[in-house]
Design the sequence.
């Protein structure tokens, strides 16, 4: 492991980087508005279009936390 | 009103105190401009949150929703997609910046590709894109001040109040550098969260619940002068997706975002923040819905949709809380404005002043120049806002987003490979800038451009595609012709610097 003071310890070991592929999921989910552009089913009292996107804010945050933990 | 003034004064004092926080030698650029690269997770969360979610965001997003409906909500998928992208890419940029003492993205472009041209291109793009953004923070402040009662021109007009607020900001930023907006961001974000949470508790129930709000909003939008809807029409789906994608790719390459990231103390802090910053996106989603609440509450904006949220608050909140909420928005403008002016100053100092006028300038001289430049930048923005019609700032802001996207091939490409040819990247950048600007111009300075008969999308994305194509083709040609690609001053290990890396002193 690289221990020189300029670079310190290696930040993310190579194999772990595959977990980054999980990030494709939010991109696919968000970039196809055709799939969520409607009123039903309503989420938390909001039309689906709105509830779905807000839900994805939370889901992506959790996904990022997971990838962070998996790639340390 | 009293609440408002008290909060503003408190924040001002905080700005001055910040010079003492985590003490460093503020006469040196890396301390003034990057707070010594020492911010941890929590402070960075406040700083980046305050940096990325600006007063303009809080005023303009609901304004768009108020005026046009669903399309305004693009801000949500936009902010969703930023973080995964930044999580993967930004720690690499941070690493090489730390290892080589880079203060700006342009420093990286120049060092990686041994190209002054690329460095200049990135710097100029950054400065040009930042200026209108600062101006728009002032616009957000104006909307608030106007509703607060500082109407018209003259001694007690909103322009005077604006100048005063800004003058105060300029002084404590001059003194404390990046620490000032970082400290103030903590207060600002707390105020904004409280305001929005209270708004969500108080407003929907007074308006008859979300179901009623959406129904009323739909009706109001359908019967408006330019009809809108709470759902997307088939024509604008492509626009929605490309706007979200393009804005997401661009955001972290704005100088003020890069400055915020470079100020952190480790890759881990950056990654952690990418996971917890989405909380602000949730906030933003609800702020966007305030636009519909304003419609449901029967707010009349007389042509200026930016007044939707201030007027809504004025109508629905008790007087004292109105002061609180307005202070939140106002302070919410000061933080990004300060960071943006510091970022622009860093760019000018390192990549224009030092590069072309004073190559031997040491860190102290750079700091002195940067401080001055940040004052000039703020003054410029003020003059702009007070003297020039709002529309113009909006056009420039639209262009700014398109322009920043054109630096992506250089920076993101440069982070992962050296095989792109520097001249190809420069040519690609130029093509992207021209194509993007032209598209915005022909579309009446709007951000959507229709290709052919019906492929409507964000001009920034079209321009980026053109940019990438040119870069790719020229790279192949130039590499085959064995045209020199300069000497890379970075080393592969620079990009993977661990959390205990030591910073090289900046040159």
Sequence:
């Amino acid at each position: 492991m690289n221990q020189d003071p300029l670079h310190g310890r290696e930040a993310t070991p190579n194999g772990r980087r595959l977990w980054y592929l999980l990030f494709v999921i939010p991109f696919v989910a968000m970039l196809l508005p055709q799939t969520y552009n409607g009123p039903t089913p309503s989420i938390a009292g909001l039309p689906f279009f709105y509830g779905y996107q807000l839900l994805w804010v939370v889901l992506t945050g959790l996904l990022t936390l997971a990838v962070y933990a998996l790639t340390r | 009103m009293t609440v408002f003034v008290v909060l503003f004064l408190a924040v001002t004092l905080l700005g001055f105190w910040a010079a003492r926080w985590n003490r460093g030698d503020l006469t040196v650029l890396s301390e003034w401009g990057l707070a010594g690269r020492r911010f941890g997770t929590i402070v960075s969360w406040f700083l980046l949150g305050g940096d990325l979610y600006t007063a303009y965001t809080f005023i303009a997003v609901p304004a768009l929703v108020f005026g046009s409906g669903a399309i305004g909500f693009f801000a949500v998928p936009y902010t969703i997609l930023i973080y995964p992208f930044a999580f993967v890419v930004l720690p690499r940029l941070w690493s090489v910046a730390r290892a080589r003492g880079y203060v700006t993205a342009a420093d990286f472009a120049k060092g990686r590709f041994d190209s002054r041209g690329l460095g200049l291109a990135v710097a100029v793009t950054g400065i040009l894109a930042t200026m209108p953004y600062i101006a728009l923070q002032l616009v957000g402040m104006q909307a608030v001040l106007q509703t607060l009662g500082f109407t018209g021109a003259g001694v007690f007009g909103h322009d005077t109040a604006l100048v005063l607020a800004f003058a105060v900001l300029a002084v404590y930023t001059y003194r404390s550098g990046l620490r000032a907006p970082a400290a103030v961001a903590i207060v600002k974000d707390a105020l904004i969260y409280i305001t929005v949470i209270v708004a969500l508790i108080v407003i929907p129930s007074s308006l008859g619940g979300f179901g009623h709000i959406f129904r009323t909003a739909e009706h109001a939008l359908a019967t408006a002068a330019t009809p809108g809807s709470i759902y997307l029409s088939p024509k604008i789906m492509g626009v929605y997706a490309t706007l979200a994608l393009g804005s997401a790719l661009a955001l972290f390459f704005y100088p003020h975002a890069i400055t915020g990231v470079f100020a952190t103390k480790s890759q881990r802090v950056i990654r952690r923040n990418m996971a917890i910053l989405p909380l602000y996106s949730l906030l933003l989603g609800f702020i966007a819905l305030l636009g519909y609440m304003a419609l449901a509450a029967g707010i009349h904006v007389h042509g200026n949709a930016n007044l939707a949220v201030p007027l809504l608050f004025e109508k629905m909140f008790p007087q004292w809380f109105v002061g609180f909420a307005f202070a939140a928005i106002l302070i919410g403008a000061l933080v990004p404005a300060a960071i943006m002016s510091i970022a622009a100053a860093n760019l000018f100092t390192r990549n224009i002043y030092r590069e072309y006028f004073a190559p031997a300038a040491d860190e102290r001289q750079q700091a002195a120049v940067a401080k001055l430049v940040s004052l000039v930048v703020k003054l410029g923005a003020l003059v702009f806002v007070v003297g020039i019609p709002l529309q113009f700032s909006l056009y420039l802001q639209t262009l700014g987003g398109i322009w920043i996207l054109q630096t992506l091939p250089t920076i993101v490409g440069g982070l992962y490979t050296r095989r792109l040819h520097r001249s190809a990247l420069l040519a690609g950048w130029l093509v992207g800038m021209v194509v993007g600007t032209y598209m915005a111009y022909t579309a009446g300075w709007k951000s959507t451009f229709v290709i052919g008969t019906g492929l409507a999308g964000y001009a920034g994305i079209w321009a980026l595609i053109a940019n990438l194509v040119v870069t790719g083709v020229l790279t192949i040609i130039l590499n085959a012709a064995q045209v020199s690609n300069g000497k890379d001053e970075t080393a592969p290990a620079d990009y993977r610097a661990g959390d205990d890396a030591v910073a090289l002193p900046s040159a």
About this structure: DSSP finds 21 helices and two strands in chain B. The radius of gyration of chain B is 22 Å. The CA atoms of residues 96 and 491 of chain B lie 9 Å apart. Chain B has one domain: 2-391.
